[in-house]
Amino acid sequence: MNIAVVIISMVLFFVLFFGIGFILNMLLRKSWVMAIVYPLVCIAIIQQINVKNYFTMPVQSFESLGHKIVSLAPADMLILSSGLTGAILAGITIKTLRKRGYQMF
Fold it and tell me: Model pTM?
């Protein structure tokens, strides 16, 4: 993967999940909603099997998911970790704004 594509993807994932996290935290009045939901989003991005297989064949499904996570390229790990960073910073930003007296909705 080209280094420019990786950098642009990292910025896009950071901004995307910061924005989604900020809006969810503001609307639901919980500071860490997106940071908790983000691993599920990552699994949805990484997985290649149907969600119902996690309930019908859990051992095989989780083994397959584990192999997919371990086999991710370093560029993919960087991109996904930048999204997690954005989600965590959204929670920190909301907590800081609330502590300073700003009340959102």
Answer: 0.83
- How many C-beta atoms surround the C-beta of residue 76 within 10 A? 16
Whether the predicted pLDDT of 105 surpasses 60: no
The answer to whether 55 touches 9, Cβ cutoff 8 Å, is no
What is residue 101's DSSP assignment? T
DSSP characters for 27-88? HH--TTHHHHHHHHHHHHHH--S-TTHHHHSHHHHHHHHHHHHHT--HHHHHHHHHHHHHHH
Other beta carbons within 10 Å of 11: 13
Task: Report CA dihedral (30, 102, 82, 69) to the nearest 10 degrees.
Answer: 0
Answer for the pair 18, 86: CB distance below 8 angstroms, yes or no.
Answer: yes
pLDDT value, residue 1: 73
